[in-house]
Design goal:
six-stranded mixed β-sheet, four-stranded antiparallel β-sheet, alpha/beta, globular, about 220 residues
Length: about 220
């Protein structure tokens, strides 16, 4: 589990000749082991917070700490190591490589871990069983249902047992049945592994699953 602090964070992007303020002197704390939902309209800065927490982006100013490790002091190589060990990412479209089997898609993160064949097989079997995918490991994504692809994408994201799992708008485009399936999937991961989950969304349906809600508007925490 990981405690995350953003302190006096500002983030600016240059778009052609214009400077855009994504975050404006924002400070917040994400509780260790929480199911945290960042809410707010599109363009409010939610996705930028995810990128900072994961070390994909660095702030223009301020400090980002995860378990007292200051990410703003890490170089690109050390940030990559941090992400590999600590962060799982679920992409909005639950993307899987169409040319790889489900097993191969799930095991992609293992390439950087140096796991033995036996360790990899055990981890894959454990996650496939948890996600109800044990009978589909040799199938291609085109042979899977939408729900199976969603579960596989989450399994891949937690393959390295990250302390933090982040997702950007994972439910906004889903109908109610698929929304419930995905929400319960995140809830299952949270309860099973104690993972700190951070979801950025403007979908109000996910709020009932949150243990912590942070409202973002115009790059600031809305009180």
């Amino acid at each position: 589990m990981s405690k995350i602090n953003l302190t006096n964070i500002s983030k600016q992007y240059k778009l052609k000749r214009k400077v855009v303020d994504a975050l404006n002197d924002i400070s917040l704390e994400i509780n260790s082991g929480s199911f945290t939902v960042l809410t707010g309209p599109s363009g409010s800065g939610k996705s930028t917070i995810l990128q900072l927490v994961s070390g994909i982006e660095q702030p223009t100013s301020g400090q980002v700490t995860v378990d007292d490790q200051d990410l703003t002091k890490l170089n690109a190589q050390k940030l990559a190591i941090f992400r590999r060990k600590n962060v799982g990412i679920v992409f909005q479209q639950f993307y899987l490589d169409s040319t790889l089997t489900l097993r191969q898609n799930m095991e992609l993160p293992a390439m950087f871990l140096g796991l033995s064949v036996e360790e990899r097989e055990q981890r894959t079997k454990e996650l496939a069983t948890l996600m109800g995918l044990a009978d589909h490991l040799d199938h291609l994504p085109s042979e899977l249902s939408g729900g199976q692809i969603q579960r596989a994408a989450v399994a891949r994201a937690i393959y390295n047992k990250p302390s933090i799992l982040i997702a950007d708008e994972p439910t906004s485009n889903l109908d109610q049945d698929n929304f419930l399936a995905v929400a319960k999937l995140f809830q299952q991961v949270h309860k099973t592994y104690g993972t700190t989950i951070i979801i950025a969304t403007h979908d109000p349906r996910i709020l009932e699953y949150a243990s912590q809600t942070i409202k973002i508007r115009d790059g600031r925490v809305e009180l």
